[in-house]
Design brief:
- The protein is α+β, with helices and mostly antiparallel strands.
- The chain folds into three domains: about 10-115, Butyryl-Coa Dehydrogenase, subunit A, domain 1 (Orthogonal Bundle); about 120-225, Butyryl-CoA Dehydrogenase, subunit A, domain 2; about 225-370, Butyryl-CoA Dehydrogenase, subunit A, domain 3, CATH 1.20.140.10.
- About 50% of the residues lie in helices and about 15% in strands.
- A hairpin with a 2-residue loop joins strand 2 (about 135-140) and strand 3 (about 145-155).
- The longest helix is centred in the middle third of the chain and has 36 residues, at about 225-260.
- The radius of gyration is 21 Å and the shape is globular.
- The model has no long low-confidence stretch (mean pLDDT about 95).
Length: about 375
């Protein structure tokens, strides 16, 4: 039986994380970060590293604290609740793949807060499937040459390292898929920041005959799909947890507002229609949390858990979207104002709903996982 509740130690971690984010990352700071072209706060990133957040899912042998992806999922929930733009879930997902590939030297730098690594997987076709890989990785001498385009790569403009997926052949099958590390300042790599609705900045990466050496290869050339697949599932499970945290916070904000706002001589919360909407939001928030926690739990034990991951991504995206739409409706005009905090969650819900595959894409993945 799966226990989706938190242990006593995890409850302490959750309370500590919530207190830290309330103090260090209020919405005034979030506004400053969103206005900064870098898109995240290096000072906050360093503090997160000092607290051991970046070390959480890594074993002690690699400089970590011996935690699990479940602990990282807990922190992802709190980051989503705070709506803090930062490459935490991206670097954790990529870092675990680097660990799998034996790159403990890079993992040590991640744990110390000295290295930001993000997956660069999304192309014209955003679906997490082998046929979507088009970036050409061509053997050349003792290294490789990369040519192609990656789109909507979160923190792609600011990352120190990019964990890139591509292929060494022209096939659309799993065979040929390859993982490659590319430095953010590598010659021939053009990084362009794109306008984004959500809080996490995205970039378009153009590889113009980028040269890499053999040491940049992660895993075996042409046999990288299993590692790419596991990276995608780790990232999607953490993204679902992040969305679940945001959904819960939107519910709390809305309930608090309806208890305070007086209309027609009585509080909004006293109207049955408003209570029904809040009840629906609570049901969806609970469902998003449970689905996300199950996905993180499943991936922690078997990184190829497509069913749990895509079910969580699809449900959490629906829950987050519904919660923010209902919240704006119940807040009225103030819900549309940039000065009010609800807009952070509304924008992020719109963005995260489509990043790394739409709801429909993940429902299709669920259907494939159960043999339909």
């Amino acid at each position: 039986m799966i226990d989706l509740g938190w242990s006593q130690a995890q409850e302490m971690l959750r309370e500590s994380a919530r207190g830290f984010l309330a103090k260090e990352a209020p919405k005034s700071v979030v506004r400053q970060i969103e206005a900064d072209p870098l898109g995240y706060s290096p000072a906050l990133w360093r503090k997160m590293a000092d607290l051991g957040w970046l070390a959480m899912p890594f074993p002690e042998s690699a400089g970590g604290v011996g935690g699990s992806l479940i602990d990282a999922g807990l922190l992802a929930e709190e980051l989503g609740r705070a709506c803090l733009p930062c490459p935490y879930i991206h670097t954790v997902a990529a870092g675990l793949t680097l660990l799998e590939g034996g790159r403990t030297d890079l993992v040590a730098k991640i744990v110390a807060g000295d290295l930001v690594v993000v997956p660069a997987f999304t192309e014209v076709d955003p679906r997490p499937i082998p046929k979507a890989l088009k970036l050409a990785i061509v053997p050349q001498g003792a290294g490789y040459r990369l040519t192609g385009l990656k789109r909507f790569v979160e923190y792609g403009h600011a990352a120190n390292l990019l964990l890139c997926s591509g292929r060494v052949n022209q096939s659309e099958a799993e065979e040929g898929a390859t993982l490659m590390l590319v430095g953010g300042d590598t010659r021939g790599l053009a990084r362009r920041t794109l306008a984004s609705t959500g809080g996490d900045p995205v970039a378009e990466l153009e590889f113009q005959d980028v040269q890499t050496d053999a040491a940049s290869l992660v895993g075996d050339a042409g046999r990288g799909w299993p590692m790419i697949h596991r990276t995608i599932n780790r990232f999607l499970a953490l993204r679902a947890a992040e969305m679940a945290g945001g959904t819960r916070r939107v519910l709390e904000m809305t309930v608090d507002y309806t208890k305070m706002r007086v209309q027609f001589g009585r509080t909004l919360a006293s109207f049955q229609a408003v209570q029904h909407i809040c009840a629906d939001m609570a049901i969806m928030a609970d469902g998003a949390e449970l689905a996300a926690r199950q996905a993180v739990w499943a991936v922690d034990r078997n990184p190829s858990s497509d069913y749990e991951v895509s079910a969580a991504k699809a449900f959490a995206a629906q829950a987050y979207s519904m919660a923010t739409i209902n919240a704006v409706q119940l807040h009225g005009g103030i819900g549309y104002m940039q000065e009010y905090d609800l807009q952070f969650y509304y924008r992020r819900a719109r963005s995260e709903e489509v990043l790394m595959g739409t709801i429909e894409d993940h429902l299709e993945r669920v259907a494939t996982a159960i043999g339909l």
